[in-house]
Protein 1
Amino acid sequence: MKKSIYTLFITISTIFSSCTDIVDVDVPNGGARLVIEASINWEKGTAGNSQTIKLSTSTAYFDSNPNVPATGATVTVTKVNDGSQFIFADQNNGDYITSSFVPEIGAVYNLTIVYGGETYTATETLVGFTEINSVTQEEGFNEDEYRVRVLFDDPADEVNYYMGEFIQDNLAVPSLASIRDEFVNGNEAFVLHFDEKNVPGTEVDIKVFGISEQFYFYIEQLIEQSGTQGGGGPFQTTPAQLKGNCVNVNNVDEEVLGYFRLSQFARTNYTIQ
């Protein structure tokens, strides 16, 4: 993502002089970019009717302020196989919600956003998930630090991708992990969560999602670049631009941040012993 123009002051000390030089560095300004956080998450055992899509505009690289909510947009999701259309109502705070969404595993959905005179679209398939079998813990690299292993059955004769999300009070943002069934197809698979803050007594809220191949490679890059740690959320200031699946149909060269995905997930809790 291109950054707004800021002046970066760099102090240069040399062995020949005690003076301080000020160097002005211009960071290219690409303007604000639309950030689309369109995760349709269907928890197993629920109807999945209530869903939220978040829109915002990005801030500059050195700006400590969060992204600015994008209001006034028209947001719809359409199920391709039967033409069902779900309208997400503007809450005037960057959130767009619906209470009538109908999830269907394997169905293809189109996202359409009209904002600022531009039209943005994306297409994804709703990916299912099996069940969480168990959660175990094992010793980490340091004393009193533990890794959490979440086990589940991987369906045979399918190519599957998964994302684990781990939420706990002593982490500023959720920790993420992603895997594919390349070496465990048809067997018990797992996602692994390890962090120096995984100490005895820590309560962990665990979610495991079925995800598409395209989103798997996207989230792999996101995890690598951001570490899923730090303030401001994962789309705030990553080291390099990540290309999601959302496109401005009026200007295909526009850099649109974020992703549209649809996942079924299972959820459990675990307390590190």
Protein 2
Amino acid sequence: MPVEERKVLIIVGFIMVVGCVFGGYLIAGGHLMALVEPAAIEMLIIGGGALGAFIAANSMTTAKAAMAASLALLKAPRFGREEYIQLLKLLYELLMKMRKDGLMAIESHVDSPADSPIFQKYPKVLADHHLVDFMTDCLRLMIGGNMAAHELEAVLEAELETHHHEAAAPAHALQKVADALPAFGIVAAVLGIVKVMSVVGSAPPSVVGAKVAAALVGTFLGILLGYGFVGPLAAAMEQRAHEDAKPLDIVKIALLSTVRGYAPQVALEFARKQLLSGIRPSFADLESELKAAR
């Protein structure tokens, strides 16, 4: 998804949440000050409690990754259509060299991709160190491992499963916070009711009613924050993690198809089919790009 579209969707979505919830409340005759006045204390209880639980439940690495992943939603994805074309062209050049000159012909390129004239032609791919490491590790297994296709597939699947689990950890951690926020809202409301009960009998009904209403604001805020903001943010982070992992799947499919004996053009067609329609180059477009790389 283009970065500008992602920014717009996040901003518009959150504005709609705020506008519809509070707008409906005002239309029904509610008064904003009834929500604003107790909000500071309720936010301290709810936000502070949720933050403390998040810190206690996760490692510092996961906490930092969650913060970075949240900010990354406002940036462009690591790979777009142009980057995928570069990746497919890089794979094509490597596979064609292997087919013409043998596996050992790419050993120097694999050992030092930064110095490889093939890799240097595709700087956007070369800049993604994790992707390059994954690709070169796979190629090393093909060069020196003499592995069957099913053996190589098992190794690659295990590595990708570990990567996907690690990449999705920040989103899952944030989703647990979203699930907990309504409960912290109830905690804030219960504490408010405890405070109310201490004045029942000595305060007039109007005062008791106002304090009960203030206590219920905690439940409202917890539910709103959990389902209106933090939950959608966690879902967007998980979607971005899937998008960022797609280049690894492309490499896996292309190399496994090669080990199974398919020609480079066919292997790349299998890989191209893995891309989402919005960023997938057409068969003709890719063919013209590959002809230019020959």
Protein 3
Amino acid sequence: MNEARVREEIARACARMAARGWVANHDGNVSARVAPNRFLCTPTATAKEVVQADGLVVTDASGKQTGGRGKAFSEYGLHLAVYRARADVGAVVHAHPPFATGLGVSGRELVSFLPEAVVSLGVRIPLVPLAMPGAPALAAAEPFFAKFDAVLVAGNGVFAWGDDVEQAYLRLELVEHLATIAARAAAWGGPHPLPQDMIEKLLEARRKAFPGRA
């Protein structure tokens, strides 16, 4: 894996999230696995629009810092738990996109009502219950890691993961896209659910593309 390229992808993802208004102040974070025991993450207390490729924190799989300036963010343990649960995951992205975050703080999960979204993300993007930061938040989220590729977190935006930074970012983007459409459709009674026979065929395609996912 080309670490220099991954560093640039992380910086670019941070800039894209900031430009789209998905983060404010020091919100959001991005991490990536670049070797079995080498991880990169965005530094804490840093606005995402100023994150630079050479300013990332380097840690081992336990979270011990081995390089870089600054310190890892407080939610880094959740990212590392995703990597432990999913050998296929190469990157995790977290942000507070307004529509998807709005669903989460309203106590609602997101149901996939577009066929393409079922293949990409499954029938639903579940809601992780509200919990205090640290061990309680990790315990609340861990049951969702194996089967899902994105989750809403009550009171804490969206987490998405993927093979690499780009895929994780695009999954986050799709979650917000779905949430935005659902909010707009509410004026006409809300999006209609997909027929069950269509869902079964779409899930079959998802299982072929992403074995083991819900």
